[in-house]
Amino acid sequence: xxxxxxxxxxxxxxxxxxxxxxxxxxxxxxxxxxxxxxxxxxxxxxxxxxxxxxxxxxxxxxxxxxxxxxxxxxxxxxxxxxxxxxxxxxxxxxxxxxxxxxxxxxxxxxxxxxxxxxxxxxxxxxxxxxxxxxxxxxxxxxxxxxxxxxxxxxxxxxxxxxxxxxxxxxxxxxxxxxxxxxxxxxxxxxxxxxxxxxxxxxxxxxxxxxxxxxxxxxxxxxxxxxxxxxxxxxxxxxxxxxxxxxxxxxxxxxxxxxxxxxxxxxxxxxxxxxxxxxxxxxxxxxxxxxxxxxxxxxxxxxxxxxxxxxxxxxxxxxxxxxxxxxxxxxxxxxxxxxxxxxxxxxxxxxxxxxxxxxxxxxxxxxxxxxxxxxxxxxxxxxxxxxxxxxxxxxxxxxxxxxxxxxxxxxxxxxxxxxxxxxxxxxxxxxxxxxxxxxxxxxxxxxxxxxxxxxxxxxxxxxxxxxxxxxxxxxxxxxxxxxxxxxxxxxxxxxxxxxxxxxxxxxxxxxxxxxxxxxxxxxxxxxxxxxxxxxxxxxxxxxxxxxxxxxxxxxxxxxx
Length: 559
What we know:
Layout: H1 3-24, H2 30-35, H3 42-53, H4 56-69, H5 74-98, H6 103-110, H7 114-146, H8 151-201, H9 206-209, H10 222-232, H11 245-261, H12 263-266, H13 275-293, H14 296-311, H15 321-327, E1 332-334, E2 354-356, H16 361-368, H17 373-411, H18 417-440, H19 446-470, H20 476-500, H21 519-536, H22 543-552
Antiparallel strand pairs: 1-2
């Protein structure tokens, strides 16, 4: 069978599973819709958390970033993995104990302010839409290649699927769908990289093959070969770092801190029955996450090696079939600058004739390596699972922020449970439409767009949450001022360099050498400074709030 037929079969089968789960676990109350009735077992919640957290950026774009950036791409590995540890150990148990399943709910009650809640609602929606744009972009890329449609139509198809199981099942449906999606995405990620590791290094464990020798009898290490090839073509060595160290630090910190402030991950710790279960599920999730993240560098190296050896200095008429397939999507382009009909793939923009969208590296890798067609279809299903799982979680955050934090808690406190559930579903449907627009018109490639979302979360939510848990003196005036300063500064910096003046998006023009992907860390620092200063010159929180903060830090007390 050809690739397209295998893709139809495997993707169709997985979609049938997702929709079946959504029908089976249809939410019947707001408690089911928001937090799955707080009845999910820790192991299942760990798998769902991993799927929710490992988005299209992790599955589709991260290895592509490492393949093209080499050592510099490690900021994404360090930032996202370290961020989850920070979230699991420092924040999740305390937020679970506080008993508020959304960040705006926590901010509103901890800072005893409707204004604080509204600011948090706006931040949550803004961050979630930025993040979901990357997921919908990933869905569009997968469908554009494997269903022979353009990226825009691929996004529309993804919107329909997400709308069905997110709006119908709510968190209950999303949770059990994400369990299935994790199984599919991790299997799809590991199978091809194991195949390629055996072919290139003779080692079935990719993490070991990554540092092993080639099977061609040369005795040369894989990374040495890759460094030599990339330098010869005019690129930086794969293992050499070129980014300024300050930018590496700020991007890593923004990704770590942003992870800890992302609302769709935090809500996961309210779907289990007890605080102890939240800690247990966090441990399971970390294991499931590390399995993929420790494999990504190997996949990146294998993909870069195969890509360079397959297309560099090859006559255009002799390119393999996979090249033509991806060229039809517009994600690979060849511009014959010197007219000789031979592909010149170099690190010099003046002579380079090949553009490869970094978001296709993982998806195209099995075809480049001539793996069986069913593996190609499996990877397509895995990419969709990663993108759809996170998109669904983000859309639920948006609908929850609108229905619960804004409509129920601010405008209509007397709204019935049934009425709130209806508003949540309408909000989720509207969010799908807006997310689809951002997927068709994204602010950048998948990992870059997601990095922006993490920076915004770092600059807005993290200080309010961390100070709300560990600093009794933090009051509403400080929290509101800090969140506004952090989100506005970070947004302005990203918009200036990404949308208004992209030609100025160069290291010599950045503040202190910090890129838009890393500016969230500086925004977080500004947030902290403003929040602490304002809180010192305004009245202390009420006594009952200070006692509440003391209580949530006492080990062993009930949630």
